[in-house]
Design goal:
Elements: E1 23-27, H1 32-42, E2 46-51, E3 72-75, H2 83-92, E4 96-99, H3 105-109, H4 113-119, E5 124-129, H5 144-150, H6 170-195, E6 199-204, H7 205-212, H8 214-221, E7 241-245, E8 251-255, H9 259-269, H10 284-295, H11 300-307, E9 314-316, H12 327-332, E10 335-338, E11 341-344, H13 368-374
Parallel strand pairs: 1-2, 1-4, 2-3, 4-5, 5-6
Antiparallel strand pairs: 7-8, 8-9, 10-11
Helix pairs in contact: 1-6, 5-6, 5-7, 6-7
C-alpha cells in the first residue's frame, strides 16, 4: 500500500481510495472519534481536523498520534468570536462532520446539527459518545470500561472466580464506537447523495457494543450459552478454545472447534491416543490439564513450528512489537512503516480503489494554507497586520 507525504505540512488533500472526493470536518477529540476519522482518511476522504489552540488531547506527541495520519489540520478556537463561523465555512463545503462532545456542547458552541444543516442541508453529522445523545447517563462522563461493563460484554471476558479481564479499549471505543460511527456515516452519506438530505448519526458506544453481542444473546436464548465467565465454547471455558503457556513463558492460542480441526490438533500435540472425548463436558478439566501439560514441554517457537501450515487452528500469542514480523502478516503488508513508526496498514482492501496512507500524523495547524485554498475558505488565513 502506497504511502505519500509526511503529514507535517504537505497539504495532501485526499487519497485515491473509495472515498476520494469526500470531505470530512473532524472537531478534535480523543479516542473513537479520531479513529473513525482516520479510517475515513485511510479510505481516501479529505479529512480536515479542527484542532484547538493549546491542544487538549491525550498526552501523546502529535508526531506519533497515528489516529491523525492522512489528515490535515487547522487551528480554530471554537470559543472565540469567529471560531464557530470558520467551522461553518468548512461545513458548507463538507460532506461529513464528526464530533465527540457531550450532548449539547456543540449546540452551545454554535456548531450543532441545526447550525450546520442551516448552512449545508446535505451534511452527515456524526456524533460519537459513550452513552448516546439521550438517556439518564447521557450527560455523565465515562470511558470504554464503563460502557462495555453495562452492556454485558465486559462480564463475559476473563476466568471464572476472577475479576473480568480488561480488553484494552478495543471492544468499546473502537469496535462498538468508531466502527459503528463509520458504518452510520457511510449509510447516511449514501442517503444524502440519493435524496439531497443530510441527517444526524447518533453513534453510542453502549449501543454498538451491545449490538456486537447479538450472536451470544441468540446462543443464550437457545440454551447454548451460560451467563457466566469461563463456562462456554468461546469464552475460555472450552479446553480446545483458549490459551496455554509454553516452557519458555510464552503462550499458544488454540481454536480447534470443529472435529476435523480438533483431530489434527490432538495428533500434532501428541495426545490423540489419550485425550478424553471432546464432547464429554464432565471431563473437560481433565482434557485441559492434558493439553496444558503437553504445551509446557516445548517453547513457543517450537510449538509454532509444529503447527505451522496445519489446519489445527493453533497460533502463537505475539506481542504488539512481534506481530509485524509474523510471516503471514509480513507477506500481506498488514503493517507498514511511515516515518519510522510501524503501524497497521489500511483495512479492508479494495480491488479497484486501493486504500493508502497519504501522510503521517497531522500536526496541529500545519495545513491552514492548503485547506484555505483547496476548500476556498480564505477566512482561515491569519489576518494581515
Amino acid at each position: 500500500m502506497a504511502v505519500t507525504g509526511n503529514g507535517t505540512g504537505t497539504g495532501v488533500a485526499s487519497g485515491d481510495g473509495p472515498l476520494a472526493g469526500v470531505r470530512v470536518v473532524e472537531l478534535a477529540g480523543i479516542g473513537p472519534g479520531p479513529f473513525a476519522a482516520m479510517l475515513l482518511a485511510d479510505l481516501g476522504a479529505d479529512v480536515v481536523r479542527v484542532d484547538r489552540p493549546g491542544g487538549g488531547g491525550l498526552a501523546v506527541d502529535p508526531a506519533h498520534d497515528i489516529t491523525n495520519r492522512g489528515k490535515r489540520s487547522v487551528l480554530l478556537d471554537l470559543k472565540s468570536a469567529d471560531g464557530p463561523a470558520r467551522v461553518l465555512d468548512l461545513v458548507e463545503r463538507a460532506d461529513v462532520l464528526i464530533e465527540g462532545f457531550r450532548p449539547g456542547v456543540a449546540e452551545r458552541l454554535g456548531v450543532g446539527p441545526a447550525d450546520c444543516h442551516a448552512r449545508n442541508p446535505r451534511l452527515v453529522y456524526g456524533r460519537m459518545t459513550g452513552w448516546g445523545q439521550e438517556g439518564p447517563l447521557a450527560h455523565t462522563a465515562g470511558h470504554d470500561i464503563a460502557y462495555i461493563a453495562v452492556t454485558g460484554a465486559l462480564g463475559m471476558i476473563g476466568n471464572p472466580g476472577e475479576p473480568p479481564a480488561v480488553p484494552a479499549n478495543l471492544v468499546g471505543d473502537y469496535a462498538g464506537g468508531s466502527l459503528y460511527l463509520v458504518i452510520g456515516v457511510l449509510a447516511a452519506l449514501q442517503h444524502a447523495r440519493a435524496t439531497g438530505t443530510g441527517q444526524v448519526v447518533d453513534a453510542a458506544i453502549v449501543d454498538g457494543t451491545a449490538h456486537l453481542t447479538a450472536m451470544i444473546h441468540g446462543m443464550m436464548a437457545a440454551g447454548g450459552w451460560q451467563d457466566r465467565r469461563g463456562a462456554n465454547l468461546l469464552d475460555g471455558g472450552c479446553p480446545f478454545y483458549g490459551t496455554y503457556e509454553t516452557s519458555d513463558g510464552g503462550y499458544m492460542a488454540v481454536g480447534a472447534l470443529e472435529q476435523q480441526f480438533y483431530d489434527t490438533f490432538t495428533e500434532l500435540l501428541g495426545i490423540a491416543d489419550r485425550a478424553p472425548a471432546r464432547k464429554d463436558i464432565a471431563r473437560w478439566g481433565e482434557l485441559r490439564e492434558a493439553v496444558a501439560a503437553r504445551f509446557r514441554t516445548r517453547t513457543r517457537e517450537e510449538w509454532t513450528a509444529v503447527f505451522e501450515g496445519s489446519d489445527a487452528c493453533v497460533a502463537p500469542v505475539l506481542s504488539l512489537r512481534e506481530a509485524p514480523g509474523h510471516p503471514h502478516l509480513a507477506a500481506r503488508g498488514t503493517f507498514t512503516d511511515i516515518g519510522g513508526t510501524v503501524q497497521p496498514a489500511p483495512a479492508p482492501r479494495f480491488s479497484a480503489t486501493p486504500a493508502a496512507v497519504t501522510g503521517g500524523p497531522a500536526l496541529p495547524g500545519a495545513h491552514t494554507e492548503s485547506v484555505a485554498a483547496d476548500w476556498d475558505v480564505p477566512a482561515l488565513l491569519p489576518k494581515e497586520a
